[in-house]
Specification:
The complex is a heterodimer of chains A (about 260) and B (about 260). Chain A has helices at about 1-30, 40-50, 60-90, 95-105, 115-125, 125-150, 155-165, 170-205, 210-220, 225-250. Chain A is mostly helical. By secondary structure, chain B is α/β, with parallel strands linked by helices. In chain B, the strands form 2 sheets. In chain B, strands 6-7-8-3-9-10 form a 6-stranded mixed beta sheet, sandwiched between helices. Chain B has a 4-stranded antiparallel beta sheet with strand order 2-1-4-5, covered by helices on one side. In chain B, helix 4 packs across helix 5 (about 145-155) and helix 7 crosses helix 8 (about 240-255). The chains are: A mainly alpha (about 260), B alpha/beta (about 260). The interface of A and B includes residues 175, 178, 179, 254 and 256 of A. The complex binds adenosine-5'-diphosphate and magnesium ion.
Amino acid sequence: MKVAASIKNFLLSLAGFAAILLIWQLGVSFTSVGNLLPSPWAVAVRFVTMCTNTVGRKYTLPMHLLVSLRRVLIGFGLSAASGIVIGIAMGRSDLIRAIVRPLFELVRPIPGVAWIPMAIVWFGIGETAKIFIIFIGGFVNIVVNTFSGSRQVDENILNAAYMLGANKVQAFFKIVIPSCVPYIFSGLQVGLSTSWMAVLAAEMVSATEGVGWIITAGQQNADMPQILAGIIAIAVTGLALASLMRLLERVLCRWRVRGS
Amino acid sequence: MTMEKKKTVIEVRDVSKTFYNREGDHLVVDHLNFNVYENEFVVLFGPGQCGKTTVLNLIAGLELPTGGEVVVNGEKVVGPSPSRGMVYQTTNLFMWYNVMKNVEFGPCVRGVKKAERRKKAQYYIDLVGLTGFEKHFPVKLSGGMQQRVGIARAYCNEPDIICMDEPFGHLDAQTRYLMEEEVDRISASEKRTVVFVTNNAEEAIYLADRIILLHNCPTSVHREYLVNLPRPRNYVAPEFLELREQITKDMDDTIG
Ligand SMILES: Nc1ncnc2c1ncn2[C@@H]1O[C@H](COP(=O)(O)OP(=O)(O)O)[C@@H](O)[C@H]1O
Ligand SMILES: [Mg+2]
């Protein structure tokens, strides 16, 4: 029953894609949309060419993707590490919460892209500025979620650990951290997708490689197939990153899953 | 039963507890006095909200009295200790650990070597009838099985006394009877001093060596009953029903 349902859903989603492609193709062939948009076939051909031939001076599309991914992994890694530590510290220590929370609440509503001019003034237009922008992109969500998780640790469960003989350090690592993990993951999930958006924004401002640059370069040359192929690469990579994170979550949080 | 000869394990001496809230002071325990003897199964019995959990928390050291003192094995209680175990009203398991890791938690944090604590935990897992479920996460177990894990976890730490706070309050009647039989069997094979809280007269009489009936809030001892019926007890034996009627009537008096 379950398998049949998921096959049905898969076929329906394929039908959805097919319908969009068909409408797109018909629109390009028979209406003036063709002046604004290349056909899906032209985009697919360009996508393949971009994978085998260089785009710009030296990189193929997969290499551009790797450049962007590397930036994201560094920036996101930094925001994950610092965001988790700050979120938990803020949640578990009254002193740190009193000091840090007002500062954080002030920084929190600033949109990530608003930091771009600051980043360029501070770090120039090199790698550091891009990584900083990605860092900011992921940081806020990770702190917010980790913080709320560490505020919701069940006091009764902590007491149960103390009653069994746990000391503060053991209670922290065996009770506080594991009960925060689901919250940390929802922060990481959102943080990763905002980091991925941030790298594109950063590369569109200044870069000589990366998928963000591919789109900007396409725009400058009025090369519509290149822009669309770039967008598709971004979408697919973003989806892959999110799925990877979900997979990791499923492994680390399998204790929460009811069914077998 | 000659209680006089038995060693006193828990002494609740003139204990009072007031909670200080924004709305005002709330006296919950008022000059409470009772003793519990070695390997005795004592049931604290009283209506809901009368202060039973508070009394257990005072014995466990999770709350401190505002008057009087609780003494366990000659030492005044000043905080939680692994020598006093607790089985909770709601299943208070570590959901991120499987059954084995839950049960061995106490010995683990107290530094017992892995091989030794595994062996011990396996013994208690077998004792509560969870053999084969060692690797299961609590979320996959039924409410009754989760309480079995809670019981094994408390016993595995080998405390001097075990407190149980309405451990079967959330179970359906069928499972509840089954768990009462299990606790009766476990406490017969693993002699411990047990303080068991319930508001169910039938459960109290089925399990207790002695029942302490508590007053409605602010609570103190209303009456005590020695239960001398042979075990395992028969819920419909005339003596059982007679005692049940008596206790239910006495409890109604504490409320009225
Ligand atoms: N931490 C607390 N602060 C204030 N009041 C409390 C606290 N714990 C319990 N009480 C009050 O003490 C009374 C008895 O509670 P409790 O010991 O849980 O009763 P029982 O377990 O018999 O149902 C209740 O009126 C409850 O509101
Ligand atoms: Mg209670």
